[in-house]
Design brief:
Two copies of one chain form a homodimer. The first copy, chain A, has 193 residues and is of the alpha+beta class. Chain A has a domain at 4-119: Jelly Rolls, CATH 2.60.120. In chain A, 47% of the residues lie in helices and 21% in strands. The first copy, chain A, is built from eight helices and seven strands, in the order H-H-E-E-E-E-E-H-E-E-H-H-H-H-H. In chain A, helix 7 packs across helix 8. Chain A is globular, with a radius of gyration of 18 Å. In chain A, 33% of the residues are buried. Chains A and B meet through helix 3 and helix 5 of A and helix 3 and helix 5 of B. Chain A binds a DNA duplex (30 and 30 nucleotides) through helix 8.
DNA sequence: CGTCTATTTGAATGTACTCAAAAGCGGTGG
DNA sequence: CCACCGCTTTTGAGTACATTCAAATAGACG
């Protein structure tokens, strides 16, 4: 079943009846995306909150100069999407792209609203989800403020050991807030150790 | 009543019965703090989630070299505190300090747990609170990744027009991720325009 | 007025970026 | 199987952005 993985995650935080679980499961649109496909493009209101079943996606922002900035890498078990656009239905500024062939679940905005209306119990799940995500974002901000690029790279490697094997280095550089050229120089320097 | 302000904020997102409102209100410990006092210190599990009624507090992190990094400025109507420490009851790494004489409300961790247990309706309030906070943190990360110090400062001024009047510049520099000296130079340059 | 802290200034330094070019690497078609 | 193409990664030189350190100035408070 395509919703097995997400139900596991939900069950860690709240306990569902069979009815609730099956209603919840019924809301998702399963989708297979190939590498480099973009389930969500920028400019229009985001339609889906995305759960990753397998593979890896990233959400990123393109600035006025045309430089990409990676907001998030989302591997199996993670949610991703453009939250401001999804919640307020304003034009999105983050694009989402598959870094590998991936299986994802799409939760349409109206379905999420209905879900929370019908079974308020899920408020708790999303409260905890956002709370944990907030904590991660805070720690990323602290990192960016206090650590040099080399340390941020080392921390990144520790936190996401497998990602480097299939995510192009230029995207990792972007996530870290440095240029690909400079990341390359950091890596050369670290090789010598 | 000391909880008037926070009830207003809560009522924007959920509708409370009188009983719910009065139970909610009863959980808070009102406290007046003077400038530079610290309702929460680092090193021990954080006891309170803090709501600011009036004045201004900041939460900040001190790194190994002894440099402070401001995580957040919290003015009237905002929540603040060390979220990882509060939720998981692990030793805190963020300190909280009053930047002006302030009136705050303390919500003890056990009270918050009881509240969500007894009236799950509040899950929705905190879900929306964390969701909005998450959006703000994402936009700060994007800013830090894509904009130079001067632009970050200008954005900060637009977003928090009044803060500069009573927050020492060195803390604003810290929030922006630059040294006080460099902020001073940015300001001199902007004066000439 | 004196003390303490915040802010400014300037020179020297370090960190990271830009630009241009070369090298590497994966896929595709002949 | 090899040659070519497009894209990623590496290299190096020059430059820009931001820090460090030391010292001077300014402001707040008793």
């Amino acid at each position: 079943m395509t919703t097995t993985k997400i139900l596991e995650s939900v069950n860690k935080h709240i306990t569902l009846t069979e009815e609730e679980a099956s209603y919840f499961s019924s809301l998702f649109l399963p989708l297979k995306v190939k590498q480099n496909e973009m389930p969500e493009k920028i400019g229009e209101p985001t339609r889906y909150f995305i759960h990753v079943n397998s593979g890896c996606l990233m959400s990123y922002f393109t600035d006025q100069e045309g430089n990409d900035h990676v907001m998030q890498f989302a591997t199996a078990g993670w949610w991703t999407g453009d939250l401001p656009s999804f919640t307020q239905q304003i034009p999105s500024i983050h694009a989402t792209r598959a870094l590998t062939d991936s299986e994802i679940l799409l939760l349409p905005k109206p379905s999420m609203d209905q879900l929370l209306e019908k079974y308020p119990k899920f408020e708790r799940y999303f409260r905890i989800l956002f709370q944990n995500s907030l904590i991660n974002h805070q720690s990323r901000i602290i990192q960016n403020l206090s650590a040099k690029a080399e340390d941020r790279y080392l921390t990144f490697q520790k936190k996401y050991p497998s990602l480097e094997q299939y995510v192009p280095l230029k995207y990792i550089a972007s996530y870290l807030g440095i240029t690909p050229e400079f990341l390359s120089k950091i890596r050369r320097k670290l090789m010598g150790k």
